[in-house]
Amino acid sequence: MNVEFINPFLSSLLNVLSTMAQTELKPGKPKIKKDEVACGDVSGLIGMVGPQTKGSFSITFDESLALTIMERMLGERPDSINEEVTDMVGEITNMVTGGAKNLLGEKGYDFNMATPIVVSGKGHTITHKSEGAKILIPFTSDAGNANIEVSFDKI
Amino acid sequence: MNVEFINPFLSSLLNVLSTMAQTELKPGKPKIKKDEVACGDVSGLIGMVGPQTKGSFSITFDESLALTIMERMLGERPDSINEEVTDMVGEITNMVTGGAKNLLGEKGYDFNMATPIVVSGKGHTITHKSEGAKILIPFTSDAGNANIEVSFDKI
Q1: What is the dotted CATH code of the domain comprising B3-152?
Q2: CB contact, 8 Å: B88 with chain A?
Q3: Domain Chemotaxis phosphatase CheX-like: where (chains A, B) (predicted)?
């Protein structure tokens, strides 16, 4: 999997969060994930299937960042990760993947998206089990950290 | 989503675990998931996309059951949920979904599967964010509990 393939997810995420929640994420250096484990408190995951390849995308937030995004979108800050927060994380997952899908379509890679799944639990870790490389991008922000992972078979 | 749709996942799971790990799971009553939250320690998740609908499947294990399955498959019990265990959970997720995909294909529902994702973390919860009903089936066994969830848009 090359960087051409991860960039659509990166730019879609920055766009979604600045538009929806006035939150600027600062991307770190993309890494090929090997032993590295990214922890977080709430994650959105989605599968993607296309004629050339299949794969998965995940976005993981620190609790503080997820709650701040809620606050900036709705004007009210939940005390903890509740159903509204997991709904929002599912929606962000859909929007980021939908944006990336459009950008990848322009490059000739077509995909259909499955439905998102949200995981909550303090300090959980995500492992993508595709046959291809797993690319991780860490992000920092004024309200906490996030990271995305993208992995596709055979690209 | 009707029971006709969940049964292929149920029978595929029972078959995979009894064949691969000589482990008999005892299914409880399927439930439409509303507020109900199923916790577990390691989960495999996968997206499915077809021409009629799309959705997601997850299977969540207690740590004790995941470690026992490893022990029965490989003859050695890991101390905790390591990469071998998450690989196995990813493989079980693929096998169960592949078996269900074949059974659903016989009923006229075709799907392509995305790649699996494995989540580990004590007591995490999974929420499927499709537009359809979420069906949960709990399982008990001699070595601990598991549960599966299946959710599809518009069936």
Answers
A1: 3.40.1550.10
A2: no
A3: 42-140
Q: Which of B86, B127, B128, B130 to mutate to test the interface with A (most CBs of A within 10 A)?
A: B127
The domain segmentation of chain B, as residue ranges, is 3-152
Q: What is the ipTM of this complex?
A: 0.91
Mode of pairing for the β-strands spanning A39-49 and B31-32: unpaired
Question: Distance of alpha carbon B36 from its chain centroid, rounded?
Answer: 17
The sign of the CA dihedral A63, A64, A70, A73 is negative
Closest among B83, B84, B65 to B21, alpha carbons compared: B65
User: Residues 97 to 126 of A: which have CB under 8 A from any B CB?
Assistant: 112-126
One-letter amino acid at B98 equals G
Optimal mutation site among A35, A53, A63, A129, interface B, most CBs of chain B within 10 A? A129
Write out the two tokens for B62: 């207690």
Q: Name which CATH class applies to A3-23+41-152.
A: alpha beta
